[in-house]
């Protein structure tokens, strides 16, 4: 009975996702392409479809990263953006753009993703180190902000050293889906499949952590190693999303909260739903970004920042969180 | 279970030192002591949660040689109930929570087997929590939550059960039920070690270990007059023991 219920919810989310991708493929800042005529083919297949799929996949990666962060640190404010991992990833991307010339499209993509992964990992570790752990929401949040500011300053330094890259770096900082292409979609598909598979296998450790650290330890789980693996997945998912779309704020924070009631308490279900929720959230924001002021497009990061900012306020107003802070 | 020259550390500080304990197998042992005596730390050390040196042996086997999973199958541990709500607000159902007790027995995919489901149902029925199985753990009252967590402990199906304040939040009828569960578990050959503040419940155990300021004060049978004298001395003569309906009760002097 419960299984059927979950399958129903999963099917609903998947159908909604497919509808959004279809809508994203047909709608654009230059208008709708309801008739699939030949002149539209290149626009639809080479631009809108990879962009829609890419936005969905980047959202799914950020949703997964946010879900992992919140469950792992038992902290409702943990999020790739607020933890410093997203800005760390951006630093990695900017470093590769500034100093690495790899000459080949795929090598460049691997270099950008690798740089983003290492940057994200260092960002989240620095935030945790500065906060002295993950127990206090406020300390972790402030540490993430401090790390993000410092990293932001480093990024600005890069644009100062290489003024010719100002626009590229600025585009990453605002969050942008216009440059998504098929190779980015392929990369994100591979990374998402890998991250999701490993996360779903080891997710019982997150269930056990809901009973407290000590109880989880007495259940025979290699907690320290699994925690490291999960931080690695968090960094990989964030890094890969940031390498394709830049800094898209708040998707990782909001998606896990939005699906929490729908998913119930089991992390295996919750993280899967966070993924789908993240995809839906980013692609919806992208559709708004494309069409709100058409034919002018605004960066998707601006839309998610506005929507996410309001959502963060709602979260902060919730009594349990306010009491904690 | 025996300990020899056991020192237990929290960070760099030794909080228990030179403990030589003999915890009888298949019996119920109560650990008693004033606040800060190191009772919970003793249980945590046995459960592998605190650093220790010296030796702890079970069935003649050194505990330090056990792999994580083997230790988890051998020893189940029940934490003191935390009153702080979980910040995330998500919650497993009671059934899913109790199923976590089966993690040490599951493969790497952690998919529950028919035996897992059977043992979870038995554990829930034994701790009178079967009717709560669909409810989220976070929404339960203190007593209901304690019964659900006791079921989680029982679901491990281990030989040794360590319980830190298992009676916390339980109402008197469920405290009485707890004593019956203990008898049932002892009938199954389990070794029980509990930390209890309620001295009259602690003295229902077969064996008593008294700790004071990180050291062993006394250990012996709960019915032995020498144990009673040591207990009175442990609390500085501020309590007296009297027999009431076959049970020993502690009253303030």
Task: Describe this protein's structure.
The complex is a heterodimer of chains A (325) and B (253). Chain A has 325 residues and is mostly helical. The longest helix of chain A has 36 residues. Chain A has a two-stranded antiparallel sheet with strand order 1-2. Chain A is 78% helix and 1% strand. Chain A has a single domain, classed as ABC transporter involved in vitamin B12 uptake, BtuC (Orthogonal Bundle), CATH 1.10.3470.10. In chain B, helix 6 links the parallel strand 7 and strand 8. The two termini of chain B are 35 Å apart. Chain B is α/β, with parallel strands linked by helices and 253 residues long. In chain B, the strands form three sheets. A six-stranded mixed beta sheet of chain B has the order 6-7-8-3-9-10, sandwiched between helices. Chain B has one domain: 3-Layer(aba) Sandwich (Rossmann fold), CATH 3.40.50.300. In chain B, helix 4 packs across helix 5. The model of chain B has no long low-confidence stretch (mean pLDDT 90).
Number of helices of chain A: 14
CATH-assigned fold name of chain B = Rossmann fold
Q: What share of residues are in beta strands of chain B?
A: 25-35%
Tell me the Rg of chain A in angstroms.
19 Å
Through-space gap between termini of chain A: 39 Å
Write a concise keyword list for the protein shown above.
heterodimer, A: 325 residues, mainly alpha, ABC transporter involved in vitamin B12 uptake, BtuC, two-stranded antiparallel ribbon, 14 helices, 2 strands, B: 253 residues, alpha/beta, Rossmann fold, 6-stranded mixed β-sheet, 4-stranded antiparallel β-sheet, 8 helices, 12 strands, 29% strand, globular
Report a brief summary of the structure:
The complex is a heterodimer of chains A (325) and B (253). By secondary structure, chain A is mostly helical.
Write the layout of secondary structure elements.
The complex is a heterodimer of chains A (325) and B (253).
Chain A: H1 2-26, E1 27-28, E2 31-32, H2 38-73, H3 85-99, H4 105-131, H5 137-161, H6 166-174, H7 182-202, H8 204-209, H9 213-217, H10 223-245, H11 251-263, H12 267-291, H13 300-317, H14 319-324
Chain B: E1 2-10, E2 13-22, E3 28-32, H1 39-46, E4 51-58, E5 61-62, H2 68-74, E6 75-78, H3 94-99, H4 114-126, H5 142-155, E7 160-164, H6 172-187, E8 191-195, H7 199-202, E9 207-212, E10 215-221, H8 225-234, E11 239-244, E12 247-252
Parallel strand pairs in B: 3-8, 3-9, 6-7, 7-8
Antiparallel strand pairs in B: 1-2, 1-4, 4-5, 9-10, 11-12
């Amino acid at each position: 009975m419960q299984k059927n219920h979950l399958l129903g919810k999963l099917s609903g989310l998947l159908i909604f996702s497919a509808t959004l991708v279809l809508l994203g493929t047909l709608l654009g800042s230059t208008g709708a392409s309801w008739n699939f005529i030949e002149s539209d083919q290149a626009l639809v297949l080479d631009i809108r479809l990879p962009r829609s799929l890419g936005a969905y996949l980047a959202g799914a990666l950020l949703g997964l990263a946010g879900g992992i962060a919140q469950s792992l640190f038992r902290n409702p404010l943990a999020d790739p953006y607020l933890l410093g991992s997203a800005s760390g990833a951006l630093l990695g991307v900017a470093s590769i753009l500034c100093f690495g010339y790899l000459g080949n499209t795929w090598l460049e993509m691997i270099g950008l993703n690798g740089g983003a992964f290492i940057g994200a990992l260092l960002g989240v570790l620095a935030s945790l180190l500065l906060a002295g752990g993950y127990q206090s929401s406020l300390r972790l949040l402030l540490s993430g902000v401090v790390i993000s500011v410092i990293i932001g300053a480093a990024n600005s330094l890069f644009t100062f050293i290489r003024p010719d890259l100002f626009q590229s770096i600025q585009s990453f900082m605002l969050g942008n889906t216009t440059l998504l292409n098929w190779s980015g979609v392929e990369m994100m598909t591979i990374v998402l499949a890998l991250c999701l598979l490993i996360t779903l296998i080891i997710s019982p450790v997150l269930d056990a952590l809901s009973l407290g650290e000590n109880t989880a330890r007495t259940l025979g789980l290699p907690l320290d190693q699994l925690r490291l693996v999960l931080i690695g997945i968090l960094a990989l998912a964030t890094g890969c999303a940031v390498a394709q779309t830049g800094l898209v704020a708040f998707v990782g924070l909001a998606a896990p909260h939005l699906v929490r009631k729908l998913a119930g308490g089991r992390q295996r279900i919750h993280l899967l739903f966070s993924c789908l929720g993240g995809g839906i959230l980013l692609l919806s924001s992208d559709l708004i970004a494309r069409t709100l002021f058409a034919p002018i497009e605004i960066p998707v990061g601006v839309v998610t920042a506005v929507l996410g900012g309001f959502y963060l306020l709602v979260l902060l107003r919730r009594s349990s969180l306010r009491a904690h802070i | 279970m025996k300990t020899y020259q056991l020192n237990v550390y929290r960070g760099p500080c030794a909080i228990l030192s030179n403990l030589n304990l003999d915890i009888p197998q298949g019996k119920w042992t109560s650990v008693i002591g004033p606040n800060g005596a190191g009772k919970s730390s003793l249980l945590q050390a046995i459960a592998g949660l605190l650093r220790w040196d010296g030796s702890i042996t079970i069935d003649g086997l050194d505990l330090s040689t056990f792999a994580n999973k083997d230790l988890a199958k051998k020893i189940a541990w029940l934490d003191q109930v935390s009153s702080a709500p979980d910040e995330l607000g998500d919650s497993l159902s009671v059934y899913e929570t109790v199923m976590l007790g089966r993690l040490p027995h599951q493969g790497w995919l952690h998919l529950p087997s028919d035996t897992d489901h059977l043992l979870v149902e038995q554990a829930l029925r034994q701790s009178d929590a079967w009717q709560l199985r669909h409810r989220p753990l976070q929404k339960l009252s203190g007593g209901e939550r304690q019964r659900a967590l006791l079921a989680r402990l029982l679901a491990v199906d281990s030989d040794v059960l360590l319980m830190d304040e298992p009676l916390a939040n339980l109402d008197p009828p469920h405290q009485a039920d707890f004593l019956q569960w203990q008898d049932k578990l002892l009938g199954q050959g389990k070794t029980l070690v509990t930390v209890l503040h309620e001295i009259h419940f602690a003295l229902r155990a077969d064996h008593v270990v008294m700790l004071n300021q990180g050291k062993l004060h006394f250990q012996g049978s709960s019915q032995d007059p020498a144990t009673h004298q040591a207990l009175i001395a442990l609390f500085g003569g501020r309590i007296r023991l009297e027999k009431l309906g076959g049970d020993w009760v502690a009253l303030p002097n």
